[in-house]
Amino acid sequence: MRDLATLPKAHLHLHFTGSMRLETLRELAEGYGVRLPHALLDGDPLRLPATERGWFRFQRLYDAARACVRSEADMRRIVLEAAQDDDAEGSGRLEIQVDPTSYAPFVGGITPAVEIVLDAARSASAATGTEVAVVVAASRMRHALDARTLARLAAQYAGEGPGEVVGFGLSNDERRGDTAEFARAFAIARRAGLASVPHGGELLGPAHVHEVVEALVPDRLGHGVRSAEDRRVLDDLVDRGIALEVCPASNVSLGVYDDAAQVPLGTLVDAGARVALGADDPLLFGSRLVAQYEIARHEHGFSDDDLADLARSSIRASQASHATRARLLAGVDDWLAAA
Ligand SMILES: [Zn+2]
Prior knowledge:
Helix content is 50%, strand content 14%. It has helices spanning 22-32, 38-41, 52-66, 72-88, 104-107, 110-127, 144-155, 183-191, 206-216, 231-240, 248-253, 265-270, 282-285, 289-300, 304-317, 322-337, and strands at 9-15, 91-98, 131-139, 165-171, 195-196, 199-200, 220-223, 243-246, 275-277. The protein has a five-stranded parallel sheet. A four-stranded parallel sheet has the order 6-7-8-9. The mean pLDDT is 96. The structure holds zinc ion. The site of zinc ion has 6 residues, from strand 1. Residues 13, 15, 171, 199, 222, 280 line the site of zinc ion.
């Protein structure tokens, strides 16, 4: 069995705060004199029911972690460490997702907040073997007008390379907000050449996947796993070439499936879906990128050939330049060849 940490791959679903190392969170909290909930520090992955209350607990813990990020230095540290950790796991391309709104008050507004993340992404790309680009994400919990403001801001930094904005996302509780109301924000982002990468098909089923597809015209779906419950919806995703950012450990932690074996990875891949495995929020789920490939290997019986295909699929679903993709794809061939 080949080492999955040396398999070149792209990481397309990782949230800024959720990427944090536990040790970093501890240090930040101590420095600011913040007392963190025990559940954040015990090193145990969360296990919450996929109910409103389960999500509410997840959100409270996430907010507690976010409240420890209060300066430009903290923000830069998070991006650099995310790149270092991804680099150690064979991720040659990271598209990290950030909603700058919460950090804006500490650094003078949402524009500086975005610029700090982009500059940190450029520096981290130079300092590690991982190219870091950024997805700016709006929140379902806020007004659709806020999402439009963020989309216009994101559009100013559109590009494909390190330290550029490559996509526009929509995160938070999928059951909240009216998806169609965010269509204008996504249209603004799309006109600027940004990929559309909203969450969908995690806490809600195939009907909402269909709604997201119609309203937000995604290039990739955050999760999208529950499309497996309706073959027509899944086939539609395949036909449209919409990639799925599948995060098995996250699904289990948030109670979407009872265990990793129940995540319908095989169903999605067999249907021809483009799948990119992601870690989502390693800080809360206690599981990073390679662990998701381990799940595919051990829980779903993926061979090294299948795992190489998953890695290729993640690279092709990224917004990286042709040159970067070609380099990473060649690395996948080398990984397979080196028996
Ligand atoms: Zn997510």
